[in-house]
Amino acid sequence: MAEICLHAYVIGRVQGVWFRKSTQAQAESLGLSGWVRNLPDFSVELKVSGEELAVRQLEAWLSQGPELAVVAEVKSKVIPAEELPFPFVIV
């Protein structure tokens, strides 16, 4: 399987709703490396790498997020591979 690295921003009501912790749990369950963090504009940013199918599954999950989140938009793009923390971390 091919590995990819994805950089994403999640916009909407995504802070204070367990978005980062839920993203970490999803990423860990898929065996992915990377990190997630809150941004000052109330969005969430993440970088993730791993098997393409698993990364795409996480990318699809980001559109809904945890139960309390209201995701308005996900902006994501594949980026060149880079060394990311494993297991997935909240920064």
TrEMBL record:
Q: Does the keyword Lipoprotein apply?
A: no
Q: List each copy of the Acylphosphatase-like domain by range.
A: 5-91
Query: Where is the catalytic site?
Result: 20, 38
Q: What are the coiled-coil residue ranges?
A: none
Q: Which UniProt keywords apply?
A: Hydrolase
Instruction: Name the Pfam families on file.
Output: Acylphosphatase
Catalyzed reaction equations = an acyl phosphate + H2O = a carboxylate + phosphate + H(+)
Name the enzyme's class. hydrolase
* Cross-referenced PROSITE patterns: ACYLPHOSPHATASE_1, ACYLPHOSPHATASE_3
Q: What are its E.C. numbers?
A: 3.6.1.7
Q: Which family does it belong to?
A: Belongs to the acylphosphatase family.
Q: Which PANTHER family match?
A: ACYLPHOSPHATASE
Q: What is this protein called?
A: acylphosphatase
